[in-house]
């Protein structure tokens, strides 16, 4: 009986091999055909799918047959008064195998994919974040390894045995206290560490003598707009009601400090200088995400926010670091914002101060001729009183 | 305690014909049933169906992520305008992600899980004839069913289903012009959600009142199985948290349809169209959403924890280790889960000081989670572990909970979250700790209580196959995602082709997709097993797993009122497995202590002075007789 189904399973295997070859051939032929005659008759879209379905059916068949064989084997063993398959042993062993293979897999993943993660932080606060990240990683990995090893070795070690009885152990207050307090202590340390780092990162006042460069970044579907302060080092006010095709972020030119604001295309940052990104959104929530600088903050309509950080590595330095001469820092959008959310980038270039100044000198003022025309003579005669009158009309 | 009307009519002559109080027609028996066991099955089947649908959606978007440049003509045939030229539309991609998340979190892991097992087990494990309010229970299912239909129907509207992510943050979800899915699709999403919450509340109120009022004689709170504790606390969480989501959703409906500005302010669409909204705050919605949303993740995991605890205790033939600690940690999680919601909002621009506070509360909640994990491990230690399919899934649940819980410690740290928020690291975290762990808890429950639901057992070997493929598959899918997150790859991106620096992740994406396909295919083993076993499975004995809890004292065939004759009385806690001195390695809850003199311990008489006296006498007598010998 057993042999019979074994035989038929072999036949099935041969058949499935034939199917595999045949199917691949057909698929290949189809690919070639479509490649050759692009606009020829539409290829049958179901063919590929049918092939996979067929494969699947075959797999099911094989599984079913293996199941049958196991059953028959089990029964014959029983009839001959031999031991049937002990599934508890099989599963216990599988648990052990899973532990070993899975452990190796995790190690592989940690080393191979783990080496593809972000390079060193390119900002000052990011270094602290990274330190904390590695501390947390080490601690959690230790717990991960120990608990998973315990879990799967227990499963193997204490797999069912009809002759044995489990150890009746309803509770043990001492050990329970230990493993409540131990994680509590570890977490307290992490919290304190994290709390102060967080406070420091989000602390808003400029340190003494420090002056940060104010940059406005505004998100809208699906792009970022940048505005730099001009010679006066101040950004003019904005008002969302003034937003238009020409005045993209709605700068309010009643505010004189807006006259020299610059509209820029690439976010140039001088290395080693504190930057304050003022973050706005016009339509939906976006998120300014600059992973290389460990910077992220949402851009929320109606709720201007800001993030202060100090870039410490120039783009050139980072290119050397990652060994990629084409590397660019980027701003991504990291809050779902619509169909083109996946493509909302802005290049960031961190450069030396001199290069920064040279670049800055070439930037165009925000106040374009078109806007001037729209505002009529207000700007032509910038005397303050007249200006106000004009705009109030 | 058990004085409600339902109880009474069952107690008298619940013999062969119960036609004397009502006639079961097909309609009342299978469709508009008020019997908790049938309602449980309805929830289960609907939940599983929804799970398969959501799973297929996920395979669709995984294919897109693995082959962003490839056209699949079949997709156009199947999806029509949503996949022009055989390539998914980017808006439809977001719709898939959104509906996948919504269905999995709410329809499968909330209604499918709690709805099935609370309904099945609360009356059966507590010794009640039915739920406190069977009619409301029935309504609860039908509201859920209606919610499911409405949610799925959004695939039929012109512009497609809601696509703002399962968290539907406004303004994106509030402005129909912001994306196609925010039109009719979003309206349907909101309607569906309101129905869903109504269902959820009716269910939860029922569970709480049944647990509090309808326990059989002797079943005090500290004799309840951990499953019941978990369902009970889950229901309380639901009752307190879901109404807040209703508030959030209703205000969103107002903003969308009646021109209010609760969440909207200073909005310009398309670079020039100034909108009239003023003074609202998008952040307000996030507070309301996550005030539900965080408890919601525990609503999802706590039943899975309860089920796993029970299944692991039964199958390691050992009492659950630290029963009291398990209950207190559930209570701790319940309470704490209301004060951590801000950890989803660290980088929204919320006051940083608040972020600091939420970081502290968040890391506190990790402590009870850790305690539970250690207690599970201690339960296995020196057990006599039977590998039933249910047991394997319960173990898988523990493994996933550890792996996913640990990454919560990264995310709960506000400083680290700056760079991790909304990346694949978060996706990995919650799919392990919630997606995988809770699904495994649910599957453990299905395999374990299938005999109780259908009177037959599922095929164990197919269960093994299902377990290993799914377990390995889930790890293969979600483990690599951590590194993508650490590589700064954002979630909810339709394609990564716009960024050359991400080409290196393409092979990882292909790998994940194929692992996901394998895991999805493995579910066929489950579906086949489930359907086959309902009709042709091996017939179950009354107590197939030699378990202690009350449901296994009820007859295999379903009777209205659960037990013939009187409801059994409970004398002991549910975890007397392998008690030294006992004959069998289990002592059901219905066995009085007076019948198990040889195995009693001092501890059994904590609040029972008379019993303690008798016990002292017994041990004294035993001692003296031993001395005589
Ligand atoms: C060990 C304790 C846990 C901690 C400290 C923790 C922490 C966090 C944090 C801070 C986030 C927000 C990450 C972000 O968006 O940047 C998060 C996300 C999430 N967590 Fe956990 N978590 C824990 C356990 C759980 C459990 C048990 C579940 C569910 C069963 C869960 C489900 C989720 C979900 C669904 C999200 C993502 C929501 C979304 O943005 O779509 N977490 N977790
Ligand atoms: Cu965006
Ligand atoms: Cu949370």
From TrEMBL, chain A:
One term of GO molecular function: copper ion binding
Q: Which residues form the Cytochrome oxidase subunit II copper A binding domain?
A: 210-362
Identify its membrane topology class. Multi-pass membrane protein
Q: Which UniProt keywords apply?
A: Copper, Electron transport, Membrane, Metal-binding, Respiratory chain, Signal, Translocase, Transmembrane, Transmembrane helix, Transport
Catalyses:
4 Fe(II)-[cytochrome c] + O2 + 8 H(+)(in) = 4 Fe(III)-[cytochrome c] + 2 H2O + 4 H(+)(out)
Q: Where are the transmembrane segments?
A: 45-70, 90-112, 132-157, 178-198
Q: A GO CC term?
A: plasma membrane
Q: Is Transcription regulation among this UniProt entry's keywords?
A: no
**Top-level taxon of the source organism:** Bacteria
Q: Which Pfam families match?
A: COX2, COX2_TM
Q: Which residues form the Cytochrome oxidase subunit II transmembrane region profile domain?
A: 110-205
Q: Which PANTHER family does this chain map to?
A: CYTOCHROME C OXIDASE SUBUNIT 2 (PTHR22888:SF9), CYTOCHROME C OXIDASE, SUBUNIT II (PTHR22888)
| Entry protein name | Cytochrome c oxidase subunit 2
Q: What is the lineage of its organism?
A: Bacteria, Pseudomonadati, Bacteroidota, Sphingobacteriia, Sphingobacteriales
From TrEMBL, chain B:
**Segments of skewed composition (Basic and acidic residues):** 10-19
Matching entries from Pfam families are given as:
COX1
SUPFAM superfamilies per record: Cytochrome c oxidase subunit I-like
Q: How does it sit in the membrane?
A: Multi-pass membrane protein
Q: For the region Disordered, what residue ranges are annotated?
A: 1-21
Where it mainly occurs, coarsely classed, is membrane
Task: Supply one GO molecular-function term.
Answer: cytochrome-c oxidase activity
Look up the record and give one Gene Ontology term from the biological process aspect: electron transport coupled proton transport
> What keywords would UniProt list here?
Electron transport, Heme, Iron, Membrane, Metal-binding, Respiratory chain, Transmembrane, Transmembrane helix, Transport
Subcellular location, record wording: Membrane
| Regions crossing the membrane | 43-65, 92-117, 138-157, 186-208, 228-254, 288-308, 320-341, 353-377, 389-412, 424-450, 462-485, 505-532
- State any GO CC term: membrane
Cytochrome oxidase subunit I profile domain: which residues?
A: 26-571
Q: Which family does it belong to?
A: Belongs to the heme-copper respiratory oxidase family.
Q: What is this protein called?
A: Cytochrome c oxidase subunit I
């Amino acid at each position: 009986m057993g042999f019979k189904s074994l035989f038929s399973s072999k036949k099935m295997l041969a058949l499935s091999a034939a199917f595999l070859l045949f199917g691949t051939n057909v698929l290949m032929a189809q690919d070639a055909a479509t490649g050759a005659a692009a606009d020829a008759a539409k290829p049958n879209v179901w063919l590929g799918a049918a092939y996979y379905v067929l494969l699947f059916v075959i797999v099911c068949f094989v599984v079913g047959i293996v199941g049958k064989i196991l059953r028959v084997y089990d029964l014959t063993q029983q009839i001959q008064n031999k031991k049937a398959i002990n599934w508890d042993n099989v599963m216990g062993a599988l648990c052990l195998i899973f532990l070993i293979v899975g452990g190796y897999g995790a190690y592989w993943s940690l080393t191979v994919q783990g080496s593809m993660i972000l390079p060193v932080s390119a900002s000052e606060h990011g270094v602290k974040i990274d330190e904390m990240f590695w501390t947390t990683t080490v601690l959690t990995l230790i717990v991960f390894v120990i608990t998973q090893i315990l879990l799967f070795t227990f499963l193997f070690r204490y797999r069912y045995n009809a002759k044995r009885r489990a150890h009746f152990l309803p509770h043990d207050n001492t050990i329970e206290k230990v493993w409540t307090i131990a994680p509590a202590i570890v977490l307290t340390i992490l919290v304190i560490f994290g709390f102060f780092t967080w406070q420091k990162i989000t602390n808003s006042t400029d340190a003494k003598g420090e002056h940060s460069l104010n940059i406005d970044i505004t998100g809208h579907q699906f792009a970022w707009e940048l505005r730099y302060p001009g010679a006066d080092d101040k950004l003019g006010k904005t008002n969302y009601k003034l937003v238009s095709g020409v005045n993209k972020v709605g700068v309010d030119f009643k505010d004189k400090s807006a006259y020299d604001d610059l509209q820029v295309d690439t976010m140039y940052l001088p290395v080693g200088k504190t930057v304050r990104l003022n973050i706005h959104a016009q339509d939906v929530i976006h998120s300014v995400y600059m992973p290389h600088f460990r910077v992220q903050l949402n851009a929320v309509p109606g709720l201007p926010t800001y993030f202060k950080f100090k870039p410490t590595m120039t783009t050139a330095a980072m290119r050397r670091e990652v060994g990629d001469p084409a590397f660019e820092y980027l701003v991504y959008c990291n809050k779902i914002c619509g169909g083109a959310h996946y493509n909302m980038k802005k290049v960031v270039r961190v450069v030396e101060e001199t290069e920064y100044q040279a670049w800055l000198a070439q930037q165009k003022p925000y106040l374009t001729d078109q806007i001037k025309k729209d505002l009529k003579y207000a700007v032509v005669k910038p005397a303050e009183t007249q200006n106000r009158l004009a705009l109030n009309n | 305690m058990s004085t409600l009307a339902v109880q009474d009519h069952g107690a008298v002559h619940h013999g062969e014909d119960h036609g004397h109080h009502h006639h079961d027609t097909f309609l009342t028996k299978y469709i508009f049933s008020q019997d908790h066991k049938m309602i449980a099955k309805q929830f289960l089947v609907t939940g599983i169906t929804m799970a398969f649908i959501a799973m297929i959606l996920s395979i669709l978007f995984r294919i897109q992520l693995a082959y962003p440049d490839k056209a699949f003509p079949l997709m156009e045939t199947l999806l029509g305008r949503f996949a022009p030229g055989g390539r998914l539309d980017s808006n439809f991609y977001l719709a898939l992600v959104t509906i996948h998340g919504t269905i999995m979190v709410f329809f499968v892991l909330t209604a499918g899980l709690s709805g099935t097992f609370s309904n099945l087990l609360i009356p059966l494990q507590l010794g009640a004839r039915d739920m406190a309010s069977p009619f409301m229970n029935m309504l609860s299912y039908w509201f859920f069913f209606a919610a499911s239909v409405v949610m799925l129907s959004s695939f039929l509207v012109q512009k497609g289903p809601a696509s703002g992510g399962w968290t539907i943050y406004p303004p994106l979800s509030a402005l129909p012009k912001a994306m196609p899915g925010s039109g009719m699709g979003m309206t349907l999403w909101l309607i569906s959600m309101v129905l869903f919450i109504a269902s959820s509340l009716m269910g939860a109120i029922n569970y709480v009142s049944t647990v509090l009022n309808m326990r059989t004689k002797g079943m005090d709170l500290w004799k309840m199985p951990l499953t019941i504790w978990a369902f009970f606390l889950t229901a309380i969480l639901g009752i307190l948290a879901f109404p807040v989501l209703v508030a959030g959703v209703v205000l969103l409906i107002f903003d969308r349809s009646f021109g209010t500005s609760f969440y909207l302010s200073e909005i310009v669409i398309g670079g020039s169209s100034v909108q009239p909204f003023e003074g609202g705050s998008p952040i307000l919605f996030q507070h309301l959403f996550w005030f539900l949303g965080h408890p919601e993740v525990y609503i999802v995991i706590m039943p899975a924890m309860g089920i796993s605890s029970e299944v692991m205790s039964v199958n390691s033939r050992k009492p659950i280790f630290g029963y009291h600690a398990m209950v207190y940690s559930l209570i701790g999680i319940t309470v704490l889960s209301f004060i951590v919601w801000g950890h989803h909002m660290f980088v929204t621009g919320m006051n940083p000081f608040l972020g600091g506070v939420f970081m502290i509360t968040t890391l506190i909640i990790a402590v009870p989670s850790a305690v539970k994990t250690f207690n599970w491990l201690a339960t296995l230690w020196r057990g006599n572990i039977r590998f039933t399919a249910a047991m394997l899934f319960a173990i898988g649940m523990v493994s996933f909970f550890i792996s996913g819980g640990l990454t919560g410690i990264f995310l709960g740290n506000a400083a680290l979250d700056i760079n991790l928020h909304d990346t694949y690291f978060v996706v990995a975290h919650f799919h392990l700790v919630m997606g995988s762990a809770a699904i495994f808890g649910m599957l453990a429950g299905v395999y374990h209580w299938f005999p109780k639901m259908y009177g037959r057992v599922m095929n164990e070997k197919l269960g093994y196959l299902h377990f290993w493929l799914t377990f390995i598959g889930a790890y293969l899918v979600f483990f690599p995602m951590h590194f993508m997150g650490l590589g700064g790859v954002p979630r909810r991106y339709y394609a990564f082709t716009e960024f050359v620096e991400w080409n290196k992740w393409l092979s990882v994406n292909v790998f994940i997709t194929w692992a996901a396909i394998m895991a999805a295919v493995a579910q066929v083993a489950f579906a086949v097993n489930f359907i086959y076993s309902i009709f042709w499975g091996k017939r179950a004995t009354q107590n197939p797993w030699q378990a202690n809890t009350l449901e296994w004292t009820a007859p295999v065939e379903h009777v209205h009122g659960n037990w013939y004759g009187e409801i059994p009385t409970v004398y002991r806690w549910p975890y007397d497995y392998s008690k030294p001195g006992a004959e069998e390695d289990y002592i059901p809850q219905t066995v009085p202590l007076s019948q198990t003199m040889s195995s009693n311990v001092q501890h059994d008489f904590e609040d029972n002075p008379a019993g303690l006296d008798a016990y002292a006498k017994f041990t004294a007598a035993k001692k003296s007789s031993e001395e005589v010998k």
